[in-house]
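To: structure desk
From: M.T.
Subject: fold request, one chain
Message: Could you run this one when you get a chance? Sequence is below, nothing fancy, just the single chain.
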Amino acid sequence: MLDPSLLLFPLLLALLATGLGFPPLIGYLAAGFALYAAGVDALPFLQPIADLGVLLLLFAIGLKLDLRGLARAEIWGGASIHLALTMVITTSAIKLFSVMGIALFDELSLNQAVLLAFALGFSSTVFAIKMLEERGETQSLYGRTAIGILIMQDLFAVLYLTISKGALPSPWALLLLGLPLLRPLFYRLMDRVGHGEMLVLFGLAMALVPGAALFESVGLKPDLGALVLGLLLAGHVKASELSKSLFLFKELFLVAFFLTIGQQGLPTGAEVLTALALMLLLPIKLGLFLLLLARFRLRLRSALMASLSLGNFSEFGLIVLTAAIAAGSMDPSWLRVVALLVAFSFLLAAPLSTHGQSIYLRLRNQLLRLERHPLHPDDQPIRLGQPRVLIFGMGRIGSGAYDELKQHFGDTLLGIDHKQEIIERHEQAGRRVVMGDATDTDFWDKLEHSDSVELVILAMPAHHGNLFTAEQLARIEFQGRVAAISRWPEEAEALKEMGVHSVYNIYEAAGSGVAEQVVELVKKPA
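Reply: Done. Structure tokens follow.
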């Protein structure tokens, strides 16, 4: 039976990591190494749980993904060009290290060096999505760009893994092209499952059965199947609700994923030196992303923030090397090297990604010459006109506030949101809404001054977004009134300290709204 005390390793080390300013996943990685060092054998139940966590991660990505976005030049072009350049540079560096006699590099043939370079060309989907979700920026322009590039990289990895098997997928795989024809059936099922545990069960079943299991049965990667099923369900009105319902399951299962990386085994001194030498390539990888995304006309901040999200080495490198070792193409010691390299890259990438905004502010003047004009259509500065009320975040709360305030302010309201599909939906409903990312400092730097604004409502779903917007309003010395939403008392306190005049707890406000409607109903004659 499993010793329950083993659960304390990841918990305590995750707490230590967060206390030091790192994301908890760094603690989970350290826990894997600590368990191995303590003599705990590899826990066999962890791998299936870890695999399930990755499957649910990709399924959740599919639920939120606009497939048309992958056709954008900065995504397919950025991913393809970056991988090609990275492979050339990394292969050259490996051969240089070999000539210099560093650690294990002289053991690699040219073909093995190219294979290792390919494995190191990927960025971590799990790490990047986790960091973006913690900041609530998966739907920002830079977040969507980073996720799109990650998915393109995943497709490259799937192609390699398919070829590395030495056999093509089953001819039956062609039938998967007919899956979109089943979308009406999937939608009908989704309509019928309701909103509770049946919705969660539906999501798990769809990700694992017609997703992972079906694709694996015809010789394709199960991860790809989970992603495709998420894409097929993305257009349903419950897609966002399903993604949120699976959130805690996905988070918990991903703990096992990071533990399994740490349990690859303790590396030797030569393997540690090899990993440290390869870490010298990480700034080059990050810099290439920055240059490429700037060439595709993303604003400097968007290009830098996306690059920081992608500036790491990937767990897919471990998957690629596992396949290569199974085929006899690589020595097993390289699996430990790359596992250590992935951990090192997370340790460096975590604070860089967390403090991306301050890094941008520090480097903006030096790097601004990289920016190309005209800017990307989705990254243009915003002209607000002369509204009296601004509402940041036009989800359900923001749109409800808009409709209620329209009775008092008429057409002088303006909503701001960073999702194109939300903009289009509100425009069809007759609301005045423009695209903008309030968490982008360039939005505030380039915002046209307007004396007409009397009231600002902060209705974004992520607390950090509302808090950052309140900071920017204080910075520009906004003289009007500011109201915001919160979920927890500590969030309300932070907003008030930043000068917000009124903070509404969304749970309490919902209860008050129900009470008001009941009172009105009681007052009416029967």
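Reply (cont.): The beta strands are 389-392, 413-417, 433-435, 455-458, 481-486, 502-505. Let me know if you need anything else for the meeting.
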